[in-house]
């Protein structure tokens, strides 16, 4: 019987042959989302079941499917566990394919990890900082992760104001001589409202910090706007 490319990809994913699944999907122009979704899920399940165990006690079947994927060279010293290698493979796949797909795949991976109750690895958070920080803030809010959202929002605003500019790979900050920069106001309003209704001490403290940070941002924005208007008036006077 005829087997569709989608079915082939699904079967390859099921047995852990992610290299071949990606090759097949790309050959037939299929999206890679399901492949990254499945690999992210495996990483979480491996972490939950095998964390703390080293190589000699890891399940041999997990090493089998990991070792069967060799398209991306992943250095795996003896002291690394099967869990480490799975996460390294996910990281390497994203580094190789995510930019080709408009960074959609990192969103797919983050959504899967959060849906499984997993923390995002630092390297994935950093990738969002450099490519689409507003998307990560939106994801945190979608999963009602208010503490993570608030901490990230504080860092994000700092980046727009300047102190964390390099961390977020921002080409410009809020300044009259720089190109315009923006913040995801709707997400920030949503976050402020959620924090305002929070009862835990830590969230109340984060709410105060976020309010103060936004006030600093709006003061700076007002000053920058005034400077730009002044410069525009001076330019008009010179030209006339």
UniProtKB/TrEMBL annotation:
Write out the transmembrane intervals.
none
Task: Kindly list the GO molecular function terms attached to this UniProt entry.
Answer: structural constituent of nuclear pore
List the record's Gene Ontology CC terms alphabetically. nuclear pore
> Where's the NUP160 C-terminal TPR domain?
4-228
Entry superkingdom: Eukaryota
Q: What's the protein name? A: Nuclear pore complex protein Nup160
* Origin species: Geodia barretti (Barrett's horny sponge)
């Amino acid at each position: 019987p005829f087997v569709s490319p989608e079915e082939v990809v699904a079967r390859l994913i099921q047995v852990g042959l992610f290299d071949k699944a990606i090759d097949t999907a790309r050959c037939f122009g299929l999206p890679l989302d399901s492949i990254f979704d499945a690999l992210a899920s495996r990483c979480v399940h491996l972490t939950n079941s095998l964390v703390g165990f080293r190589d000699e006690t890891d399940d041999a079947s997990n090493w089998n499917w990991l070792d069967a994927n060799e398209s991306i060279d992943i250095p795996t010293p003896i002291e690394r566990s099967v869990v480490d290698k799975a996460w390294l493979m996910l990281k390497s796949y994203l580094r190789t394919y995510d930019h080709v797909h408009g960074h959609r795949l990192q969103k797919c991976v983050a959504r899967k990890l959060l849906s499984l109750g997993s923390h995002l690895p630092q390297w994935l958070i950093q990738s969002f900082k450099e490519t689409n920080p507003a998307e990560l803030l939106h994801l945190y809010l979608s999963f009602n992760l208010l503490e993570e959202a608030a901490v990230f929002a504080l860092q994000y605003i700092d980046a727009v104001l300047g102190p964390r500019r390099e961390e977020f790979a921002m080409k410009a900050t809020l300044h009259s001589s720089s190109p315009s920069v923006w913040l995801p106001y709707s997400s920030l309003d949503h976050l402020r409202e959620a924090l305002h209704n929070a009862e835990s001490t830590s969230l109340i403290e984060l709410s105060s910090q976020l309010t103060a940070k936004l006030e600093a941002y709006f003061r700076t924005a007002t000053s920058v706007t005034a400077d730009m208007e002044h410069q525009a008036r001076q330019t008009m006077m010179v030209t006339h």
